[in-house]
Write a structure and sequence with these properties.
Helix content is 30%, strand content 31%. The protein is α+β, with helices and mostly antiparallel strands and 261 residues long.
């Protein structure tokens, strides 16, 4: 169904700048996961830019198999289909993190920070998460499904989530227009996805580094070949891998979970 009135005006006003992300926006009251819906459509050959938005998810998920708490009406739960150039597909999570942070700032004035690869934070608390999943259609056409969840209203999250999460309204102390946040995030995503498709990778990397200034330079831990490693996160490289300085070496961390100390 079409988005409700809460979203319609903001999306209509932003439509000229949404590109492909404004042509087919589908609204659901409740889904298991917006990524699940988008993946099914992608496998059936849907074009890049189809957007799935839900008011609630019963099985929302984050990176590394974690559950993403998705109370009804308390957040934005969004997924879209991308078909980026193969050489830049690894940068989709980096570009998405930048876009969500930029969309939040444009719509609310709040300026979030990024943690590698794409977690969106305010101070020490997580505001939004991003999950990118790859797949292939039966005809062999590759795609990426990009999902993001933004905590908008304070909600009754599980205790382990409540201890480390925040929301837009908590940080701002006022009501937030979910429609405007969605429109601004899609507009920013359209811009950053165009950067990837047109080869402006350096612009995406620079924008990510600017948002990560407060997290780079900190110690991190991660597991490599079954052993715990530790070093200082210094940067990301042109492929989006985290560059970490350890005792006597500089290493690239391109996957897995990184814990910030």
């Amino acid at each position: 169904m079409n988005p409700p009135d809460e979203f319609a005006q903001a999306l209509a006003e932003a439509a000229p700048r949404l590109g492909a992300f404004g042509r087919n926006i589908q609204w659901y009251h409740t889904v298991t996961s917006t990524n699940d819906v988008a993946a099914r459509l992608a496998e059936q050959g849907a074009d890049a830019g189809v957007v799935i938005v839900a008011d609630a998810q019963t099985a929302g998920r984050g990176r590394h198999g974690r559950t993403w708490a998705s109370p009804a009406g308390a957040g934005l739960y969004v997924s879209t289909i991308l078909r980026p150039p193969g050489e830049h597909v690894r940068l989709v999570p980096i570009a998405a993190g930048v876009a969500v942070a930029e969309g939040v700032e444009a719509s609310t004035g709040l300026a979030p920070a990024l943690k590698w690869p794409n977690d969106v934070y305010v101070g020490s608390r997580k505001l939004a998460g991003i999950l990118a999943e790859g797949g292939t259609s039966p005809n062999g056409r590759a795609h990426a499904v990009l999902g993001f969840g933004i905590n908008v209203l304070p909600a009754a999250y599980p205790p382990d989530v409540a201890a480390r999460a925040t929301s837009l309204e908590t940080e701002l102390g006022r009501r937030v227009d979910r429609g405007l946040v969605l429109a601004c995030c899609l507009r920013a995503l359209a811009s950053r996805y165009a950067d990837l498709c047109d080869g402006r990778v350096a612009d995406v990397i620079a924008a990510w580094r600017g948002r990560a200034a407060t997290t780079l330079g900190r110690q991190v831990e991660w597991t490599s070949e079954g052993a715990m490693q530790r070093g200082v996160a210094e940067n990301i490289d042109a492929d989006g891998a985290l560059v970490v300085r350890t005792d006597g070496a500089v290493v690239r961390v391109s996957s897995g979970e990184v814990r910030w100390i």
